């Protein structure tokens, strides 16, 4: 498997270029009906002007996570002496969210009259394409068993598409996190990006890419979040410190928020939902950010041993801490207080993600709830370890994981809110 993943940056002798056309199935396939059903007519929000100023609701000032219930929440904005910043990462990312939501709406308008039966089209697809998706499913089952089981509840077409996206993300992550990571250069990532362009143009290099090329034909998926994930990997190659939460937020968007944006067009929004498309995308983004923040908080010690500190430097300073304290790995009261605020902020992102999870199409909700509940418990485990994330890895036991699954199922049965949904930026 590792060999297959590594092959991705090596120029291929044999290319699957034109593979999809050769199947005679993938190109020109109609958009599926589910796509058309997800979207209701939705109005776009303008980015609120007050977000450009630094009096934020959840900025971490001093030892406390400042929380004022009258103002909106912008965790990534840390007060600057001038009380304003130019363009926050949050605003930049929100523009991507709007673009993704607009794309889905455009497709809906174009295709709403089509009567395509999505799952009937699959038996006609070629053996090779079926093989491609099966392989993606196997990789998914190998790397993320619980998540794989969750996808089995989705419709076959959606499940295959999510596997294809998962495999592309996993391969991308493996470039900088896998066994060959020390040999990965920016030009290897450039090659990976060229290859992505080819996948989106229907010219996959290998069988796993072919599954993604097919997925892109079936769902209104934009290339931007994929490109942004590669950008996150570029950041990982050149950056090992994050000045403030604004910088960290952008990194979290690149490596994890993008996953949310890639997944929603496949998972679909419930026809019962009254939430705006961009609200659901914002929640998906929030889940990615929450997961990545949790990942960072869990792995503080492990990252430090690789010379990396993802925690915002300015917030460490405000808390009276430095890189030195992290490398020393001693749990002090200062560290505990600092961690309490970091955990609180991650939980706010989970809270926002919860709202959108309920708005997804019924069959897609369970794996999302399972992922949310399981990952959020890592935060509880960090607390249970008395904030020692230097030498203890917070870990959710098998029993707790199993216990969460029925709870995730129960949550997935909750119907979308009948009220118009408001997304509050954490
Ligand atoms: C249903 C569901 C969860 C779908 C997502 C499927 C998918 C395409 C996953 C790809 C995950 C992946 C391989 C990402 C590469 C970058 C990366 C490694 C990110 C980190 C994940 C955990 O990594 P890892 O497996 O190494 O973790 P462990 O060390 O083993 O703990 C991340 C922390 C982030 C992953 C981000 C998500 C799963 C975002 C999920 C958001 C949605 C599916 C949107 C849901 C929609 C709403 C409206 C809430």
From TrEMBL:
Species of provenance: Vanilla planifolia
Enzyme Commission code: 2.5.1.32
Subunit description: Monomer.
Lineage: Eukaryota, Viridiplantae, Streptophyta, Embryophyta, Tracheophyta
CDD domains reported for this sequence: Trans_IPPS_HH
UniProt-listed InterPro entries: Isoprenoid_synthase_dom_sf, Squ/phyt_synthse, Squalene/phytoene_synthase_CS, Trans_IPPS_bact-type, Trans_IPPS_HH
Transmembrane segments: none
Record-level GO BP terms: carotenoid biosynthetic process
Highest taxon above the source species: Eukaryota
Xref: PROSITE patterns: SQUALEN_PHYTOEN_SYN_1, SQUALEN_PHYTOEN_SYN_2
Keyword Transcription regulation: no
Family: Belongs to the phytoene/squalene synthase family.
Protein's name in the database: Phytoene synthase, chloroplastic
Protein keywords: Carotenoid biosynthesis, Isoprene biosynthesis, Transferase, Transit peptide
């Amino acid at each position: 498997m590792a060999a297959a993943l590594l092959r991705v940056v090596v120029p291929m002798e044999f290319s699957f270029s034109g593979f999809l056309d050769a199947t005679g199935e993938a190109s020109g396939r109609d958009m599926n009906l589910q796509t058309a059903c997800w979207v209701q007519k939705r109005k776009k929000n303008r980015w609120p002007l007050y977000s450009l100023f630094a009096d934020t609701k959840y900025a971490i000032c001093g030892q406390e996570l400042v929380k004022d219930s009258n103002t909106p929440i912008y965790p990534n904005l840390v007060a600057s002496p001038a009380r304003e910043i130019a363009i926050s990462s949050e605003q930049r990312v929100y523009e991507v969210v709007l673009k993704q939501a607009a794309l889905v709406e455009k497709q809906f308008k174009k295709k709403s009259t089509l009567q395509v039966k999505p799952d009937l089209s699959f038996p006609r697809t070629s053996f090779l394409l079926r093989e491609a998706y099966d392989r993606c499913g196997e990789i998914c089952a190998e790397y993320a068993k619980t998540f794989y089981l969750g996808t089995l509840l989705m419709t076959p077409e959606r499940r295959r598409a999510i596997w294809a996206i998962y495999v592309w993300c996993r391969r991308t992550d493996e470039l900088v996190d896998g066994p060959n990571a020390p040999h990965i250069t920016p030009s290897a990532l450039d090659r990976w990006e060229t290859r992505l362009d080819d996948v989106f143009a229907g010219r996959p290099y290998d069988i796993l890419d072919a599954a993604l090329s097919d997925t892109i034909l079936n769902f209104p998926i934009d290339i931007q979040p994929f490109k942004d994930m590669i950008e996150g990997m570029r950041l990982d190659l050149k950056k090992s410190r994050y000045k403030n939460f604004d910088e960290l937020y952008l990194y979290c968007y690149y490596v994890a928020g993008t996953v949310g944006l890639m997944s929603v067009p496949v998972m679909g929004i419930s026809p019962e939902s009254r939430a705006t498309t961009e609200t659901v995308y914002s929640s998906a983004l929030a889940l990615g950010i929450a997961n990545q923040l949790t990942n960072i908080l869990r792995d503080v010690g492990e990252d430090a041993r690789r010379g990396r500190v993802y925690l915002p430097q300015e917030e460490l300073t405000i808390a009276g801490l430095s890189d030195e304290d992290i490398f020393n790995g001693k749990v002090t009261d200062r560290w505990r207080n600092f961690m309490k605020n970091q955990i609180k902020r991650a939980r706010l992102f989970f809270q926002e993600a919860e709202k959108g999870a309920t708005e997804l199409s019924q069959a897609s909700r369970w794996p999302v709830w399972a992922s949310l509940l399981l990952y959020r418990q890592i935060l509880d485990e960090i607390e249970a370890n008395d904030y020692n994330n230097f030498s203890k890895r917070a870990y959710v036991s098998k029993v707790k994981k199993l216990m969460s699954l029925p709870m995730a199922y129960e949550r997935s049965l909750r119907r979308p809110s009948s009220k118009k949904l408001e997304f509050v930026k954490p």
